[in-house]
Structure formats: structure tokens, C-alpha cells
Amino acid sequence: MKNIDHAGSRSQSPDLATLLRSWRERLRPEDVRLPFRGQGRRTPGLRREEVGWLAGISPNYVQRLEQGRAHPSAGILRALARALQLSKAEFELACRLAGHAAEFDGMVPQLIGPSVQRVLSRLPDVPVAVFDAAWTLLEHNELWAALTGRAWGRAGRSTNLIWRAFQHDIGDMGPVRHAFPADHKASLVADLRDVASRYPRDRQLAGMIGELRRTSTEFARLWEGSAVAHHGSERKTIDHPQVGPIELDCDVLSVHGADLRIIVFTAAPGSEAAGKLQLLAVIGLQEMTA
């Protein structure tokens, strides 16, 4: 008697194309952060264009993957795992089926499990973002985007806090103002040094560090130093163009077993900052009119 795979079709063993389609169909638009909400859906789950937006790939490529006409790279597979909210076991299965299992050994984890996704969706009145151990932004809720003034991209070095801090063409850390900027940068670099020692086989991480050492004398000096520190919680001021400066408590939470960082901005109840956050929750990314 033949086994039944995850998608319900009869086969000797699941194939990646069938699994990708079944994982897409089990998600609902309200399960993920999307910039659009379609009506009159004829098929269950997310649309291919929605998965493509979440993973940073074209809907046509998603279709080819689901039809078995394309083979995803390790980077694409990692992005799809985040977009489809795969569990660790599901991600490992996808890696084996795609032939990339060995490539992810020793890489910085970027898998966001369903429980962390629920934290993002169930705290709409608190700016929340999820970063990997190397401070690459993986996901954020809508209030985080409203507070920082933009919705960051979904992949690449431009979403990494440390890359943004030391690249002159980007400028600075954005609207977030730190009480002691030099100490903040030093703690980030010291923290990154520790991460690099734990994930020595991550080529993307090594490439980013090498580029920063070549292009930023400040980063190179800090990297060669001996300071040992970890970037953690502190009080920060966010200069917002519409509501003005907002002074907030910034806490960094760790996800046990996943090596993820969750950054949460909060304000004391009844404070001026709390009122400004409430206002941002209403206006979102839209500019206030006179």
C-alpha cells in the first residue's frame, strides 16, 4: 500500500514541488504580513504572487518550483522557508530534497517558527522585529515599519544593522538615535565577532565581514580590537518625521534554540511616547496631512 504525502497525493515519497504547493496552500493571508489583502479567493492558502513577495522572488519562479521545472538555490530555499513559515523538521526535509542539506551546516540560522510569527501578529500595538544572530532583519510587524519610517527589504546586506551602521553610502542607523553611538557600534562589532566564531562556515557572513573590513576603517579598527561585549537592551530615541522624537525602551529578547533576536520597543503607560505610538498605529506608513 502506498504512503500518502503531506499534500494528500499518493506517492512513494514526497517531492519538493508537491510539498511547496501544500505548504503554500495551508497558509492564510492573515498568517503573514502582506501589503495587500485579496478578496474572492478561488483557491486555498496564499497566492503565488504573495509567496513571491514574501520570499523576494517572482511569481513565475514560484510556479516553476511548484511544477518541478526549477531547482532552488540554498538562498532561495532559505527565503521560501521563512515565507512559508516552515518548522525545523520541514526545512530540513526541504533541504534534503533539494540537495542543500550540507550547505546549511554551520550557517547562521534564519528560520522563524510559527510561535515567533504569532508574537509578531499578536502584538500590533508594540513595534517588534526579528533578527538573526548576525543582526540581519528577517521580519517585522506593521508598527515597526511605521516607527522606523519604512518597510525594510526582505533579503540582502541592506537589511543588516551592522552593514548599515558602517557603510558610508547608506549613512547611518536610520531614525534611531543612540545615547552613545561609538559604544553602540563597538558592542555590535564585538557581538558580531562572537557570532562569526560560532558560525565559521557561513560564507555570506564571512563575505560581509570581509567587505566591511576593506571598506570601513572604523569597522576594521573595532574588528581587530579585543573588546568583548554583547549588544543588548538600552533606551533609545527615534526621530520620526511626523510625530517628532520618541524616547522608548528597547529590549532584546533571545529565542531559545533558534538563535534569533527579537527587538521590542515599549513606552511607559500614559507617557507622551505611548501616545505617539498609538498615533503611529493609526497612521501607519501614511504621511500625516495638515
Q: Topology, pairings included?
A:
Layout: H1 16-25, H2 48-55, H3 59-66, H4 74-83, H5 88-98, H6 114-121, E1 128-132, E2 137-140, H7 142-148, H8 161-166, E3 176-177, H9 181-198, H10 203-215, H11 217-224, E4 234-240, E5 244-255, E6 260-266, H12 272-283
Antiparallel strand pairs: 1-2, 1-6, 3-4, 4-5, 5-6
Helix pairs in contact: 2-3, 4-5, 7-12, 10-11
Element order, helices and strands? HHHHHHEEHHEHHHEEEH
**In the CATH hierarchy, what is the architecture of the largest domain at level 2?**
2-Layer Sandwich
The level-1 CATH class of the largest domain: Alpha Beta
Strand arrangement across the biggest beta sheet: 2-1-6-5-4-3
Low-confidence stretches: 1-12
How many structural domains are formed by the residues? Answer: 2
Structural class from helices and strands?
A: alpha+beta
Strand percentage lies at: 5-15%
What general form does the structure show? globular
* Average residue-wise pLDDT: 82
What separation lies between the terminal Cα atoms? Answer: 70 Å
